[in-house]
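= Protein in question =
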Amino acid sequence: MTSIPNQNRTALLPMIICCAFFFILGFVTWANGSLIPFAKKAFDLETDLQAFLVTFASYIAYFFLAIPSSWILKKIGFHNGLVASVVVLGLGSLLFIPAAEQSSYILFLTAIFVQGSGMALLQTAVNPYLSIIGPIDSAAQRISIAGFCNKTAGIIAPIVLGALLLKGANAAEARLASAATEAEKQSILNELLDQLHTPYIALAVFLGVFALLLKFVKLPEVNVDEEEVSETGASTSRKTIFNYPHLFLGSLAIFFCVAVEVMAGDIIGTYARELGTVPQVFRDNATAFTLGFMLVGYLIGMTTIPKFISQQKALMVCTIVGILFTVLSVFTSGVISFWFVALLGLANSLMWPAIFPLGIKGLGKFTKTGSAIMIMGIAGGAIWPLVYGFMKDKLHIDFQHAFLYAMLPGYLYIIYFATKGHKAGAKS
């Protein structure tokens, strides 16, 4: 494969391929918004905290697989790594079939974890690639374009799965309540779980075909192992990755960025159910509303960064708006509160596109490892829903106030990173 230098223009073919991958990532990731309420009903779970293990299984894979993913990429190469990631995603999709056949929530979570492992490998490869195929100062713009594809798929996933899974789950709920025997109840649950077959077999077939096609596509390589040269022309003298504190602060910013994204995108359906007065159609497609507002944010990012506003300032504005919408969601009720949570998609939209390039900026030969460390921060999506569920179900804090207590620390840290954290360790 040929090498792409850090150029003044964005390479078109790699950009198109990256957008395709972000579409796949979006579909698989945001399917969780439908799988959480489905799992609670289909596996007859007692609490929302148990159902939130769906997001835990998906996002915790990034923490454990990000660093190994960087090793895999070094061993087998970028192109083969991308093919492998799609194959792993397909295998994870197939695991839903035995999970449904055996009515096993553990196997169901294992399938999600395997999918998460494939996404960890894919994210570790795609994000630095996207940041480096053009000027670093416009990386947020490129990630916004890819993010648009990601969130478009994220809107499609809950709508499709909502129609295939949640419609049946809502109908089964009344039947379960009137079931006379345990055998009758289990029969209804088995019928519900059988609905997993069609979407996940179809997804596995699609991923298999895509992996095969990708194997034969000539995709240029980015050489990020060479020592980066500073603006003055001198090579960086930093010897270890620990000489870049802004990287680790950036990984923590990604942790909180994904945490607030998942809270607004995946937990909104549960939040809507707790509100009580939100129409069923809103509850079943809640994630799609949040992601729809994220698309609006990405469009804004594509047209304004860096021409009218810098990555850092965009991050600051989004974070302040996120705090405002969170507070308003807590101190309103019904559909109005629901819409403020959905509007958090707009506030959260430009956070990842701004944080990631700021975190890996200036790493030179450490870019691949640094990217893996940044990707580890995605574990925020695993931990934070459980924090919220624990406060709500175990500490019995009102669900709206628990939402506030979960969201504010994340936003406040991101403000710190936007103002000072990304400059940590910078040479004067």
About this structure: DSSP finds 20 helices and two strands in the chain. The radius of gyration is 21 Å. Residues 83 and 212 are 8 Å apart (CA to CA). Strands lie at 3-4, 221-222.
